[in-house]
């Protein structure tokens, strides 16, 4: 026995030395392979060099240029079916022809964009331009935000570049003060060529309800919590709905978002109060009222008994078999999808958008879904590796020109759209293609998401109910109460925020579900609030508040 | 091996004794004597060095505040911070307990299941039946986890088939995956369902190595089938069982996180939240490589220790070991 | 003769009845998910969306989901790439694993214990994704199919399994071959591998299945879509399902509706070929194959 111990000890020691040796060796090797070429200062092209190049490029498209550029951007999933690379699509070809710039596209795999982005950043082999979220607001964006990205020497500050080489974008920014504020950092730096949403495309989700049932039961579309309760009861008792109200809940995402919660003048996350101060909804006293309501609805069977297990397949099933009569979902993924599915089987099946519920009749809903004009996700930055930033900027600026906007929004005239009375209309090849859906066709002839301004005339809805729903859902005070997505906490702040919010979200979600399904006494709400405060929620609110203050001062 | 004890001793002990005497110079001599053996070994060791040991410097990020831009070597050191934040997390003990419990049940119920199936199959005489059973039982292994979990969810919902059955016997309908007390049963039994056939394959291969003459001899002695299994079959595949068991011990801290993430929900975190699912949730938001790496290192250290212990025990008890 | 007599005992008969019944039930249970997937893939998408619980037959039989899968121009390419990786990978896997397993099964090998620990250690500790990526990149393997073959050349687990099998081969055989002047290569390929065919079959299956199912490495190492293996192509296809959640407000239309059945069709397309491999390997699992070979 003792002998064995000795033997194994020496064996372990040998192993240790061996492993340490290898570790050391690999450290040295790693040091060698990574030693060169980090630091952000070197290889930053100065603008003077650019100036000399400016004269050659010209100011009209196609540019007089022979060199190409490289771009790292996601390829729309619908386009992947047809073409492995954006350059091969009709859109890509037209863009190359019109701008005169040959682009080598590098497409990350959609499922691991973040991982591939991180690998790219770490490997120090940057393309000329990268389409990514740079705000640092979440895991899927550059950690530390745009200021950090510029400081790290990943991307270029664009103030001079936009000023000199991007007249189209510059004009849009000058005309729209609000947009201008959104796309800058707190210290006034531009960092991307932004994706600009059209005001008509900002709202695309909200509560929806079976209109054919309402008509049959002679009920109006509910607007207040009391009306909703009566309606859901009627659905349960008279239509046999087993889960009158249901929403998906997967991976901690309760897709009800702020609906119903907003009736109590709070939100399911951070929001801006009436006083203009940042608040965290789930610790508000009125949030308890929301929990109490849903706890009651759950117990009474008005709210899905399988809540917390309902994924999108389960919700499809419930919606289409009449187990559920109301939900909160998207314009296309909800209304469009389900009406499509029932078109043949039950022509009466009709979903309409319902207003965000309020507590008192006539009240304008406190909050609802509403995106901002600037969408950070699909915006392009120019990297420090760009040899000719002017060229990249000019190429990017094309999308903001009138001609470019038509290409990015509608595609190629005569092929994918025609002009009728000054309005672009999709051709039959796009709209009524026998083999492919509108979405698929649109994805190869234009760029559904990207750095350009979306056109208000572009409409992909297929049902009048969808157009109607947008109007109904737009009538909220969301604009006042939603915390902008592009606030930029400082590097330190965002790290701190990340730590706090991970803990808070974890705890909050668990308690949230337990409160609703009745596993946790509602009397413990105060303890729950105390625990969240202990986890540092006040500090998180403070960070957002200061970021918001800085934002307002931009 | 058991059949030729004299030869085993003859061939094993002598070189071992020689090793001690010759020491380091023995290696060179041995290389000269068995050059081919070392030529075979070289690409294997090279592979492990290049693809496993060289990248191990990456484990350092467990002690660093990793930022992709700075790279692994350039990121600042933070010492044990990530470990501390794991140990001091409010759910630390809960996830450790859940992980160990699920692992324990897997070891008790999940590990023997393929072995039992293999033994039962071994008793089947009709070849066609045997092959059919083999081929069909291993199929669930190939169905992606997402679909398996989708089926499990559908079956356990308040209006699913299991509730249909239970309510027939007068039980009240409940959404089974919303109740913490059922989670382990669901997790383990569905795991057996998925892997029983696949796990059997290796035992079947081992079974085919048993000398038929031993069965003949046992039958001559009038041994019943039970006795044959006990005295011939089991000893014949014991080394395989032990090796697999030791390797299984090395996975105690790694309960299948992906499946848990697909199945659980906050109301059953009490029993369902394990280390990997917890790390996934904690790391998800900040894409925290460092935190994940620190917990991974912690798990590996425990797993590795367990393997070393069980290997040592096994060597003491029946002379089978990994090294 | 012997067997018949033995089967005649009452206890044996009861056991047989019990055994056959149990195995039949078990087979049906384990088979069901695959049947479910098959039926789901052949169902009318809308009907399937509405369905919950057990499926006894395809709901309004149709092939639309399969049509959509095979209309994808990448599918054929994906199959081809997977076969290339499979063929190249398996050769390398088997040879290198056998080399390692054989060398480490020799009891006379110097530092054998340490070498085993060296290998077992890698099963527990690794440096994570990023350094491995740099290693693969540094070797110039990225964006080639080699990146799917070489970094997966040996699995420590499989090496241990194979070594356990080699250790069980009586040393007398090796000794006598050595006396005949055979070197280790000859012994490995002429004696060890033929003797351990059941385990070699398991190895083929284990390695084959892992190559067949792998997609993550391709996602990380390969950027050129024409090099995507089948599983990655199929995963991308499934993402179409999520395309409807695109925050643009467009209608998902047919694609969104077909999503769920599509998911099941891709599973069938991706699994059926590999399911057919096993019956061919089964002949190596015959009882006594090894000892029979020794004697013959």
From TrEMBL, chain A:
Q: Specify the superkingdom.
A: Bacteria
Q: Which InterPro entries match?
A: Bact_solute-bd_prot1 (IPR050490), SBP (IPR006059)
**Which keywords does this Swiss-Prot/TrEMBL entry list?**
Cell membrane, Lipoprotein, Membrane, Palmitate, Signal
Record bears the keyword Membrane: yes
| Gene3D superfamilies tied to this protein | Periplasmic binding protein-like II
Give the protein name, as stated in the record. ABC transporter substrate-binding protein
Source organism (scientific name) = Paenibacillus selenitireducens
């Amino acid at each position: 026995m003792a002998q064995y111990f000795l033997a194994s000890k020496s064996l372990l020691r040998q192993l240790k030395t061996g492993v340490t040796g290898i570790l050391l060796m690999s450290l040295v090797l790693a040091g060698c392979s990574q030693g060169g070429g980090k630091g952000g200062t070197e290889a930053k092209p100065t603008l003077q060099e650019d100036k000399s190049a400016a004269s050659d490029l010209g100011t009209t498209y196609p540019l007089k240029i022979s060199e190409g550029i490289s771009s790292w951007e996601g390829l729309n999933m619908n386009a992947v079916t047809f073409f492995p690379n954006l350059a091969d699509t009709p859109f890509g070809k037209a863009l190359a022809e019109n701008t005169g710039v040959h682009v080598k596209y590098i497409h990350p795999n959609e499922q691991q964009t973040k991982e591939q982005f991180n690998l790219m950043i770490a490997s120090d082999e940057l393309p000329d331009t990268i389409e990514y979220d740079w705000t640092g607001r979440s895991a899927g964006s550059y950690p530390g935000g745009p200021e950090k990205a510029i400081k790290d020497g990943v991307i270029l500050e664009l103030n001079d570049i936009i000023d000199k080489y991007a007249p189209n974008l510059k004009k849009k920014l000058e005309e729209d003060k609000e947009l201008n504020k959104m796309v800058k950092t707190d210290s006034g730096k531009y960092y991307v060529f932004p994706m600009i949403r059209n005001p008509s495309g900002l709202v695309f989700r909200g509560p929806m309800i079976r209109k054919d049932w309402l008509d049959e039961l002679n009920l109006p579309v509910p607007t207040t919590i009391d009306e909703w309760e009566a309606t859901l009861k009627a659905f349960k008792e008279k239509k046999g709905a087993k889960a009158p109200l249901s929403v998906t809940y997967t991976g901690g995402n309760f897709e009800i978002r702020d609906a119903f919660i907003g009736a109590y003048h709070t939100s399911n996350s951070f929001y801006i109060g009436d006083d203009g101060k940042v608040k965290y909804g789930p610790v508000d006293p009125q949030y308890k009222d929301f929990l109490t309501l849903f706890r009651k609805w759950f117990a009474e069977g008005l709210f899905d008994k399988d809540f917390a297990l309902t994924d999108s397949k389960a919700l499809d099933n419930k919606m289409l078999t009449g187990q559920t009569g109301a939900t909160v979902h998207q314009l296309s993924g909800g209304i469009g999808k389900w009406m499509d599915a029932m078109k043949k089987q039950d022509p009466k099946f009709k979903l309409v958008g319902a207003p965000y519920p309020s507590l008192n009749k006539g009240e304008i809903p406190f909050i609802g879904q509403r995106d901002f004009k600037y969408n950070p996700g699909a915006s392009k930055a120019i990297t420090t590796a760009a040899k000719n930033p002017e060229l990249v900027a000019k190429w990017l600026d094309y999308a903001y020109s009138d001609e470019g906007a038509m290409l990015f929004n509608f595609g190629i005239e005569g092929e994918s759209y025609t002009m009728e009375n000054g309005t672009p209309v999709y051709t039959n090849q796009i709209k009524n293609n026998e083999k492919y859906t509108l979405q698929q066709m649109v994805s190869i002839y234009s760029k559904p998401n990207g750095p350009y301004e979306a056109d208000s005339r572009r409409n992909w809805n297929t049902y009048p109910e969808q157009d109607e729903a947008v109007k109904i859902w737009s009538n909220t005070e969301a604009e006042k109460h939603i915390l902008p997505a592009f606030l930029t906490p400082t590097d330190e702040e965002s790290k701190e925020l990340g730590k706090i919010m991970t803990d808070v979200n974890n705890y909050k979600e668990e308690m949230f579900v337990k409160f609703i399904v009745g596993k946790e006494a509602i009397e413990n709400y105060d303890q729950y609030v105390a625990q969240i405060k202990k986890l540092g929620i006040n500090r998180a609110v403070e960070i957002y508040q200061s970021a918001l203050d800085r934002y307002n001062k931009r | 091996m058991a059949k030729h004890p004299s030869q085993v001793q003859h061939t094993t002990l002598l070189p071992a004794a020689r090793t001690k005497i010759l020491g380091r110079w023995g290696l060179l001599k041995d290389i000269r004597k068995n050059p081919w053996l070392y030529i075979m070994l070289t690409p294997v060791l090279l592979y492990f060095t290049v693809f496993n040991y060289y990248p191990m410097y990456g484990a350092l990020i467990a002690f660093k505040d990793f930022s992709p831009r700075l790279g692994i070597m350039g990121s600042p050191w933070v010492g044990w911070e990530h470990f501390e934040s794991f140990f001091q997390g409010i759910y630390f003990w809960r996830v450790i307990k859940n992980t160990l419990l699920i692992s324990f049940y897997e070891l008790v119920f999940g590990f023997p299941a393929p072995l039992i199936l293999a033994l039962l199959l071994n008793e089947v005489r009709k070849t066609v039946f045997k092959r059919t059973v083999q081929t069909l039982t291993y199929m669930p292994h190939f169905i992606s986890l997402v679909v398996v979990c989708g089926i499990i969810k559908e079956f356990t919902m308040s209006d699913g088939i299991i509730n249909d059955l239970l309510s027939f016997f007068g039980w009240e309908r409940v959404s089974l995956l919303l109740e913490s007390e059922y989670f382990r049963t669901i997790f383990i039994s569905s795991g057996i369902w998925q892997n029983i056939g696949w796990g059997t394959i290796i035992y079947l291969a081992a079974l085919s190595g048993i000398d038929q003459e031993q069965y003949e001899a046992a039958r001559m002695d009038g041994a019943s089938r039970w006795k044959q299994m006990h005295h011939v079959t089991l000893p014949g595949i014991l080394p395989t069982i032990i090796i697999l068991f030791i390797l299984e011990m090395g996975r105690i801290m790694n309960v299948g996180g992906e499946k848990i993430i697909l199945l659980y929900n906050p109301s059953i975190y009490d029993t369902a939240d394990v280390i990997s699912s917890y790390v996934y949730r904690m790391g998800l938001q900040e894409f925290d490589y460092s935190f994940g790496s620190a917990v991974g290192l912690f798990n590996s250290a425990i797993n590795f220790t367990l393997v070393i212990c069980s290997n040592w025990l096994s060597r003491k008890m029946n002379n089978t070991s990994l090294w | 003769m012997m067997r018949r007599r033995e089967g005649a005992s009452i206890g044996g008969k009861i056991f047989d009845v019990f055994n056959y019944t149990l195995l039949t039930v078990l087979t049906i249970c384990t088979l069901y998910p695959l049947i479910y997937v098959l039926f789901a893939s052949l169902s009318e998408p809308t009907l399937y969306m509405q369905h919950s619980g057990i499926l006894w037959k395809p709901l309004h039989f149709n092939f639309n989901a399969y049509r959509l899968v095979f209309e994808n121009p990448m599918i054929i390419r994906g199959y081809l790439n997977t076969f290339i990786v499979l063929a190249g990978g398996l050769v390398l896997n088997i040879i290198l694993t056998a080399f390692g397993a054989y060398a480490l099964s020799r009891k006379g090998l110097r530092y054998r214990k340490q070498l085993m620990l060296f290998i077992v250690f890698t099963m527990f500790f690794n440096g994570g994704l990023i350094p491995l990526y740099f290693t693969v990149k540094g070797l110039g393997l990225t964006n080639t199919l080699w990146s799917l073959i070489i970094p997966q050349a040996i699995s420590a687990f499989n090496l241990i399994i194979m070594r356990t099998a080699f250790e069980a081969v009586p040393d007398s055989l090796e000794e006598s071959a050595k006396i005949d002047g055979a070197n280790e290569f000859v012994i490995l390929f002429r004696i060890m591998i033929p003797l351990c065919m059941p385990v070699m079959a398991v190895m083929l299956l284990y390695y084959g299945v892992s190559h067949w199912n792998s997609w993550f490495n391709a996602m990380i190492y390969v950027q050129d879509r024409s090099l995507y293996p089948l599983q990655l192509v199929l995963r991308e296809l499934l993402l179409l399902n999520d395309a409807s959640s695109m925050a643009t407000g467009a209608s998902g239309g047919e694609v969104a509706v077909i999503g769920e059945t599509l998911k099941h069709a891709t599973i069938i397309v991706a699994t059926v070929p590999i399911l057919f491999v096993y019956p061919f390997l089964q002949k190596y699992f015959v009882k006594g194959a090894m000892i029979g070979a020794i004697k013959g």
